[in-house]
């Protein structure tokens, strides 16, 4: 029986009210199948990129290179592309970065592998990249909670100690990209809370970028207050916001009762919360850019990220 004949039969027996539930179920099933296929494709592409990368680095003599952790996908030229867990390249236009950043100074806080720092540099900016001095400086509950996180990470990297783990997880991947790209990005080491009182004291940057940082901090408002002291004009925040009711400024606690799953995510503010915090800190113009559906490539999970722009008057 043809499709239009089946539809006509349902309408004849049950009316239009009986047709809609059937159509709705089919649509939901179709969407679920499409999402499953999309996730499978993301995961397959991710593992393919790992195989290609490992083949290309076989003759490159860098200590621990085959055990590096790649947070970002970065094209290093000559067909060498890091197999990052996140690939932001297709969505760069959504961030609304200036095409020409010549004569601009940029602070990239929590650079990880360095994708955004290198992107700002490509556009002509003078870039300072910030990372933690040690993995122990991650905001984690002291005692067994933090010890277990660091121990698991050390085992994952097959490292001898926490220092080697830090090299394999953060510093080594950035340094490798930095050298291959002949980059002049300056790397500084500090917690976000100490930025304004350390090597960058009294410095001002035209643009400050925070990529997926606030959700990992015990004290997001404190961190924003510190960053504000370093920001001359433009602050861009890239992260997940909580949805739901926007009539009140709310921040969702995401850490759970005990350590499980993602052991370092603490907060998801809603748009109203982040907007009011930034306005309280002196940013007169706060607006939300387009949503970016970001894929965590190892499992294909999609999270809706927001780009928040905050600007203050230039004095």
**Rg (C-alpha, Å):** 23 Å
Order of H and E elements: HHEHEHHEEHEEEHEEE
Average residue-wise pLDDT: 90
Strand percent estimate: 15-25%
The total of beta strands comes to: 10
Percentage of residues in helical conformation: 25-40%
CATH architecture of the largest domain: 3-Layer(aba) Sandwich
What general outline do the C-alpha atoms trace?
A: globular
Question: Can you say what the CATH homologous superfamily of the largest domain is?
Answer: Vaccinia Virus protein VP39
Structural class comes to alpha/beta
* Measured distance between first and last alpha carbons: 74 Å
Which stretches are poorly predicted, pLDDT < 50 over at least 5 residues? none
For the report, how would you describe the main beta sheet? 8 strands, mixed
CATH topology call of the largest domain:
Rossmann fold
* CATH domain class name of the largest domain: Alpha Beta
Count of separate structural domains: 2
Contiguous helical run count: 7
